[in-house]
Amino acid sequence: MATTVGQRLAALRAEHDLTLATLSEMTGISKSTLSRLETDQRKPTLELLLPLSRTYQVSLDDLVGAPEVGDPRVAMKPRQLDHGRVGIPLTRSIGPLQAWKMIITDSELHEPRVHEGYEWFYVLSGRIRMRLGDKEIVLRAGEVAEFDCRQPHSFSSSDGRPAEIISLFGKQGERIHTRAAPPNRS
């Protein structure tokens, strides 16, 4: 059964063999406030928890029983995509913004697609040939493309050798803002 903040505070005071009066002197918090905190009759605020955390020498997370943080690493399992491409998800869950590393080996520009969303991608290595509307461009390593996915678009390797990109895609049209160089402040 989960313990409340009040139960943890009472247990810490008992563990340190302190009276409410002594703890009040050490923290500057009144005895009645300490008593109400320990019986969960007073909401614990940061202003009250900080001196208690210092006195008991425990973190705020331990004091309030914050859940443990899990492993922050994202399990990157490659997925086969259309046209022999490999996509590696770089975000854990499907949300408003998704990040992918993609390996593009096909050199054929396929039928342009149109769909909701906004895409930004950075070329890590190789060369990408991109058709956007009626324009065709080649992007090299270190270059970035950003576009509204409602424009007809397709892309491939420009020379038949594998190319790698990092792609950020927002389904509802979220835009990524980058600055390639600091503004010139002359």
TrEMBL record:
InterPro entries membership: Cro/C1-type_HTH, Cupin_2, Lambda_DNA-bd_dom_sf, RmlC-like_jellyroll, RmlC_Cupin_sf, TransReg_Diox_bact_type
Source taxon at top rank: Bacteria
Sequence ranges assigned to domain HTH cro/C1-type in this UniProt record: 9-63
Source species: Lentzea kristufekii
Keywords: DNA-binding
Name by which UniProt lists this protein: Helix-turn-helix domain-containing protein
Xref: PANTHER family: HTH-TYPE TRANSCRIPTIONAL REGULATOR, METHYLPHOSPHONATE SYNTHASE
CDD domains tied to this protein: cupin_XRE_C (cd02209), HTH_XRE (cd00093)
SUPFAM superfamilies in the record: lambda repressor-like DNA-binding domains, RmlC-like cupins
